[in-house]
Fold these 3 entries.
Entry 1:
Amino acid sequence: MSISVWPIISADELKKEEDLSIERELAWLLESLQETLVSLKSGLEDCYALLAPIEPGSTLVMSSPRSESLKGHVTRVGTQIVKGSLHLRLKTHAPLHLVLSPTSTLPLQPLVSLRTLLNESLDCIDVTRWTGDKNSASFISGQLRLLHSILTEAKNQLKGQNLLAPNGGHDPETSWHTSPLAAEAFDPPLPSQVSLNLTISDASLIMTIRVLEPANVTPNLGTRLAFAIGAQRRLEHDEMDEIFKYNGAEVRVVEKLRVESADPSLMAAMAKLAALEHTVQLARNCLVAVMGGDDTDLE
């Protein structure tokens, strides 16, 4: 079975008709993409609303599973922690009860970056719809590529993929010791040998508490003997053999506790961003196909 044009026309006429057909299809696609951009803007505004600093915010339980090491809760409003009460019973430190000072807030840098990226996405859509030539396939293609890259970065802020370097090591730009929280943010102030860090991963609030000691401290004879005969064990964790620069001094991490709490609003935002990213990718695929490009145009 074969498909042919009837009545038969010349090759030149056939090529001309094919070009006209592609032009009409491209014009229709560019027009329909304007509706897609309106839908994308609405979805981005929904994501923005989920990060809005609206009271009472999200109260998240921060408790260590199957132990009394950490019990408490924090309240997130927008991109900041505004309330918190934590009871700590660590193995290498005296019990602590920390309360976030009423005059202090703890910023969540991934969410700050996320709001900036959402603003950039909304600006990108406005430029695409109102500033540039909406009938230019190359312009629309370039804008969709830019929008897709922004949405991917925004989603990764909630996934926490920037927490680890490609080789599995700690990324120095996001490490806990490069920008520690102010001790005065808590009442009573956070002890100098205790570090508390907050970040976002998989749409969950991650709290990591570390007990520190100077790097030049060596165990006394009794401690070394206890280690040797097995009467005492070192607390094993992924940072036990590393040395960090913390508040101007070299320190080791004696004890490390990591607790996470899923945030429903952030989970909804991440799902919406994934859907928006997929929608933009489909639009790019369609536009590249009609323009006669290949997979390299989607990189």
Note: The radius of gyration is 27 Å.
Entry 2:
Amino acid sequence: MMDSMIPVLAGTLAAATPLIFAGLGELVAERSGVINLGVEGMILIGAIAGFAAAAETGLGPAAGLPAGALAGMGAALVFAVFALSLAANQAACGLALTIFGIGLSAFIGQHYVSYSLPGLKPLSIPLLSDIPVIGPVLFHQDAVVYLSLAAFALVAWVLAKTRLGLLLKAVGESPEAAHAIGYPVLAIRYGAVLFGGAMAGLGGAYLSTVYTPLWVQNMSAGRGWIAVALVVFAAWKPGRLLLGAYLFGAVTILQFHAQGLGIALPVQLLAALPYLATIVVLVLISRDRRLLQLNLPASLGKPYLP
């Protein structure tokens, strides 16, 4: 039984990686008081940009991952201009970005439907990868999985231990007070939104150049919405977001291994499991209003102009 669970556990880390990138980016943006519902669109834009760069240059993920991050940042910049500089409704701008990302990625991606990439070979860490059970799960992954863990550690440290983290929280709680004592509120929010776009684009590029690695229309399959839900599930805390990403990653990968594990459920139900889990978790979290009120940034979603 344990041998059959090793591929599931190992696959969970890879399946959760796009959610970690996108979720961390959205968490930072929301900490600054900006809710960007365009994560799904930014993931798709990053996915097609990364795949196109990898295919055209022949460099694979080495070109695809930075290209995806830059494309996601560019999409986030468009959102920021409308939502921050023009003080438009943030939810509407985010939804528009998602619709735009779906259409743009489908249009550009039609030229890459028949392409496939070599992907990225997993790294086998000497000695550690030979440890029974733990070795194949934790120490035989591709480099981007370890990069996602490094990104988590960096974001958690910045938010908890640095002046920048305190500034983000201050702007998210009361932009008026932060502006009154001389902090550039819009500049800080721009930086947070652009970081969120880069992380979502990086997650999308990982999907198309490493995890799959090929282009499929709408290949994000709702991961952007799950990433937004993860931020609420995590109560805006990086540690809980990481655990939530692995939970949803496990549910996602389990559907592919269900038949091999002897789970007799309809394929359609298995495919819907990640989204059902998202709904259940949000319902449970919403019942704990005290937890949400304690951690919810007070100015989240509220436009601000100095």
Note: The mean pLDDT is 89.
Entry 3:
Amino acid sequence: MTTTAESTAPAAAAGTPERTQWGAILTLGFAQLIVAGGMSTLAVALPSIRSGFAVTEAATAWVLLAYALPMGAVAIAAGRLADKADLRAVAVLAMGGLAIFSAASALAPTFGLLIAARAAQGLIGGLLFGMTGKIVVTAATQAQRGRALSAITLLMTIGAMGIGAAGGLIIAATSWRGLLWVFFGLAAVAALALAATVPSNGTGLPRFGREFAVDIATSGGAIVAFLMSFEYLDTDPWISLGALATSVALGWLWTRQRTSAPTVALLRRPVMAAALVSLTLMSAVAGLLNFGFPYLLNDVYEVRPELISLALLAFIGGVAVTTPIGGVLADRFGAGRISMVGAGLVLAALVPLLLVGENTGLVDLAVRIGLLGLAFGIFNTPMNAHLLASAPPEQAGTAGAFMATTRTVGTSLGPVIAALMWSLASTPLDGYRLSALAIAAILVLGTAAMATAKPWRATANA
């Protein structure tokens, strides 16, 4: 039976439907997959873009950054907008705009215009990312919210594997422009599907006025400056320090805005604050996935790139297996309680990875990586559900936006910490071990931060 108020709150709560609209949930997952794939999949096209425009490797990094930074900038403002906007109208605008700017990217005659079109893609795609939490709360009953989030996560996980594998084939058969045309078609289909499934209040598009612009300039600018501080940490520490100071200043300005008062009050809730800090720190596991493991396999085991990809797919496979289980458990026993259990399982799964040595075989390492994925699948979806349950229904969009933003910060922080630890070691194996220990320490802090608010006893909207 259900044991926490997270799953026993009355269905009559504001904005809570009487039954879950699974069409909207699955369409949202498909749309999110396209938005996320717009960055990760295009990474395989960077060498072709470099050759096509005769630019440097460093310049091609902006093909990804120009997409990611605007997405991070608009997320919080979009979440606040979602709390008072027509969700269907904004969702269709976001995916329709993503389709248009995907076509503009494919047609870009110069590298500068490609970067501009990619920035527009990220900016308008970020609208959907920022309002995902509100759509979930509006389309799913509270008793099935964990399963709804797990369906979105599972669709994105499996879809990311398929799109990642197909990206190289599409580029080989056509070009990097052909890959962008594929995203144009997928985004257009998603826009039509969102128009048919996402709930609407009939108010149409909101006014994107001064308040929205100030919100993006302050909160968005703070996030972009914070993320940019990581980019220059190893090459120019003074630029990194300046970016960090800019982030703090813009963040302070954002808190001083009159319209930010409800959001600041939400962030001061102990359960919400603890959950966001925990999610940020737990997301640093990306330091192992995106830095530690690839360099370990390349520098220590001398594994070919394609085998490195297969070994890392073990993590995604593990997440795919346990994500539905985590959603069901969150609905049955409470999202806070299960996310705490999941965090403990992640820590336990890290232990075998701390004991990796020169004689550890590739299959053995893949199994250990898979176990980490299994544990993370139990943590991830319940944690998202716990965050949404910790906010009042009228602030679900804001909570969802911070959920996406803190995860982005954490996944950016992890590889930076791992790289720093690696640089302090004398051998590649020692570099991996130092990196793994540092990430493990961050995850311990993340688990402890979550425990401070006693999530197993937290009540929804209390």
Note: The chain has three domains: 16-200, 211-268, 269-462.
